[in-house]
Amino acid sequence: MSPPPTAALSLSLSLLLLLLLSFSTTTTNAHNITRILAKYPQFSSFNHYLTATHLASQINRRQTITVLVLDNTAMSSLLSRHFSLYTLKNILSLHVIVDYFGSKKLHRISKRTTLASTMFQATGSAPGTSGFINITNLKGGKVGFGAEDNEGKLDATFVKSVKEIPYNISVIQISHPLDSAEAEAPTAPPSDLNLIEIMSKQGCKAFADLLKATGADKTFNQNLDAGLTVCCPTDRILKDFMPKYKNLTASKKKSLLLYHGIPVYMNMQLLKTNTGTMNTLATDGVDNFDFTVDKDDEVVTLDTSVVTAKITGIVKDEEPLIVYSINKVLLPKEIYKPVEAVSAPDDDEEADGPADSEAADDQTADDNSGVQGLGGKRLVMVALSLCIGMLLM
């Protein structure tokens, strides 16, 4: 017996609503301040130093943020004072408010003035209220900005809104840098990070030894200051792989090791929100040497087209460095045959030695996953079809 039309309609709409809500929550992407500012050449200097100081990745991790950007002229006046990179990071972090202020909100501030907390305050390096900035509505519709520890002076005014995604991120231009004695105080550099020592003490000694033996460690260290993500096979995993590794030429050994490094800091949240193709330290103008980052709930996987490895833990996370442990050696398709090319067990060989037999196992596991082959948009279309069918019954 078919349900009454009203019951069918209610059921259909409820099903559709639930699926649409599920779809919207699983496809939300975090903002990317570097990409936003890349469209505006007048902010290229500010954008560069957000990356150089690693503030960009910290901004991208925030769910609600306001960035007070400076054009190249304003940045030149700041850079002419020759601050160290570490002091410059404090100064720029004072220009990042940990709240949402769009242009409308700026012009509708209650009682005409408010104090806003910044990322400089959030670091814990700002004593008292020195990490706060004063935002005040002035005459003629202008909005002024000044550091709380600057004796009430409003150094800058609102110029224009650059980009607003309510209530996620607001990027607004201000006229001048904000002066702050605390933010401008000399800042000591962080303690040196010894990548080889860190991995050797945390279950990745075999991988660290290979980096040193091939000279690949120099490339890893050269990228450390700008940001580095390392995917490290544990000692047990690498021990089982060594017979295949020894069959490679010297150049292929080095490329395989460099393939385990990403030349940017990518913590777990960034990996989950930036899934897709990822370049590596082995990437050059001729060969891609990339892999695909994917996630299934809380599990992050790295798919090379030859093997799929899982991130099993975090060995070290101290920006600009993060080291992950992985459960398989990453096999690049530039050296090994992709899974799609394997037609029979006898063909399961790489260019100059046997291919990793685990690759076929991973492919079978992926083929059996079923629902994973359906994208979110396809699920919504299926739901719509079902709902329409029920309405027509």
UniProtKB/TrEMBL annotation:
Tell me the SUPFAM superfamilies matching this sequence.
FAS1 domain
Is Nucleotidyltransferase one of the keywords?
no
Could you tell me which Pfam families the record lists for this protein? Fasciclin
Instruction: Write out the annotated subcellular location.
Output: Cell membrane
Q: How does it sit in the membrane?
A: Lipid-anchor; GPI-anchor
Domain FAS1: start-end pairs = 30-178, 191-330
The protein's UniProt keywords, in alphabetical order, are: Cell membrane, Glycoprotein, GPI-anchor, Lipoprotein, Membrane, Proteoglycan, Signal
* Region forming the signal peptide: 1-30
The Swiss-Prot or TrEMBL record describes its family as follows: Belongs to the fasciclin-like AGP family.
For this entry, the protein name equals FAS1 domain-containing protein
Q: Which organism is it from?
A: Hibiscus sabdariffa (roselle)
Q: Which lineage is the organism of this entry classified under, starting from the top rank?
A: Eukaryota, Viridiplantae, Streptophyta, Embryophyta, Tracheophyta
